[in-house]
Amino acid sequence: MRPTDLRLPPAGNVRAVGLAAALMALALLVAGCGKDTRPNIVLITIDTLRPDHLTCYGYDKPTSPRMDAFAGGAVLFEHVCCQSSQTLPSHASILIGTNPRSHKVISHESFVDENTTTLAEMLKRRGYRTAAFISSHALDSKYGLDQGFDTYWEVHKQFTIPERQLHKVQEKSATTDAVLDWLGGTTGSEFFLWVHWFDPHRPYNPPPRYLREFAGGYTGTATSDADFIMKVWRERIDLTPQDVDHLTGRYDGEVAFTDVQVGRVLDDLAARGLLDNTIVVVTADHGEILYEHEYYFGHDIGLYDECIMIPLIMHVPGHGRPGARLNPLVQSLDIMPTLLEVLGIEAPDYLEGKSLLPLMGGTGEATVAFAFSETFPFPEKSPPRHAVRTADAKLLWKETRADTILKAYYDLLQDPGETANLYSDNFAPASRLDSVLARFVADGGLHPARIPTAQESGRLRILKSLGYID
Ligand SMILES: [Zn+2]
Predict the structure, then answer these.
(1) Which value, in Å, is the radius of gyration of the alpha carbons in the chain?
(2) What spacing in Å lies between the alpha carbon of 46 and ligand 1's midpoint?
(3) Neighbour-count burial of 407, counting CB atoms closer than 10 A to its CB (0-12 exposed, 13-18 middle, 19+ buried)
(4) Ligand 1 mean position to 369 CA, how many Å?
(5) Tens of pLDDT along 53-74?
(6) Domain that residue 215 falls in
């Protein structure tokens, strides 16, 4: 067993919690939660979930009645940028609190360094019971995000079936069942529970009821299987509008199914009388291109808004007006500082986000002027991409195998679909963001902690089954 409580933070210093902070924590807890106990925390990350496919974010289909109702009693952030369009790096940013180039988990094949301190470790040191329920190989414990969790339940280790069949287990709600079992059997101190669902990720194979409701009546041949999707991408195959609608409907069916799972957990928390003293965060690791760009259904290669804008709905007892919708640009990086502030734990210096509590309390402005997102999909095949996003514009850098950089600037107010590249060296708004992104990319060399061999990780086989590589 690793000595998780003795590990040092990755950089900077964690200042000791002083008397003032302790008193503030006590005051917050008493005033905010109405009890003299610390709040529980439930962090829900739904893989591959686009906010604009949730009704509460304006979608015109009923994909999310449970999350809509939850948002009605919580605070919804309308513009949230994640730090990577890949599962492991983005989750690492949520749970470590820094950009991928700082925590160095930059791709599917990086590891969380054992000297890194995670949110789970910080809470465990303070007496929290910690449990994670994970629905994808991409977050396997071997990559290190299990640090600090007493329980790290992984769906793919519960069933001896091929990876390509794993979605059938997910359709049977295995992860949710395990979460509810844990909630029913756990007693003692406060808990930090992380629930990860994977269903909206390809392949889009929702249970029959949701398939009928959102994608029924289709007579074409398009499927969301990896082979078909990769063929469309590589060969630049034009799909018909009916094909695209069908695949999008399949995705929506997966979202709707996951919404039911969110509801099951919320219902259980409510039935146990825990919601008044439990922070609940619903968010995602990244979104999904649904054929809007690059002939693609997926996310690894893209830093368009459909990939890097995510939902964020937070229920923090005592903070924020229920039903509030906040417009300023915020980031995944802001989740961890927010939770730490609620608990009265001083944030380590190296965290790269800011607490959202001032915004929720109506006293704060945007937490960030420039949000960054990067992807390092497949080192040999697809060079890195980098993006800086402001409230109303974005600059993309796409590295090429010829060591050049293709640049694109989008005016998101005039062109939210990112269809017209306005980049030119003489265009001042683009040049300004160009300088900002150049400084960011130049900061901190990229030194992935350790790249496993294919034999070590079995990763290549898994990635192939998911359609990431061939
Ligand atoms: Zn993901």
Answers:
(1) 21
(2) 8
(3) middle
(4) 25
(5) 999 999 999 999 999 999 999 9
(6) 40-369
Closest by CA position to 289, among listed 277, 278, 305, 273 = 305
Q: How high does pLDDT run on average in the chain?
A: 86
Indicate the pTM of the whole model: 0.87
Residue 460 lies in a domain: no
pLDDT in tens, 224-235: 888 998 899 889
Q: How far is the CA of 90 from the centre of ligand 1 (A)?
A: 8
Q: For position 242, which CATH number holds? A: 3.40.720.10
Q: What is the predicted pLDDT for the residue at 13? A: 34
At 46, is the secondary structure helix, strand, or coil?
strand
Q: How much distance in Å is there from the Cα of 286 to the middle of ligand 1? A: 6
Domain assignment present for 375: no
- Find the 356 Cα to ligand 1 centroid distance in Å: 23
- Establish if 389 belongs to a structural domain: no
Helix (H, G, I), strand (E, B) or coil at 89: helix
Q: How far is the CA of 62 from the centre of ligand 1 (A)?
A: 23
How many A from CA of 280 to the centre of ligand 1? 20
Cα of 362 vs centre of ligand 1, distance in Å, is 32
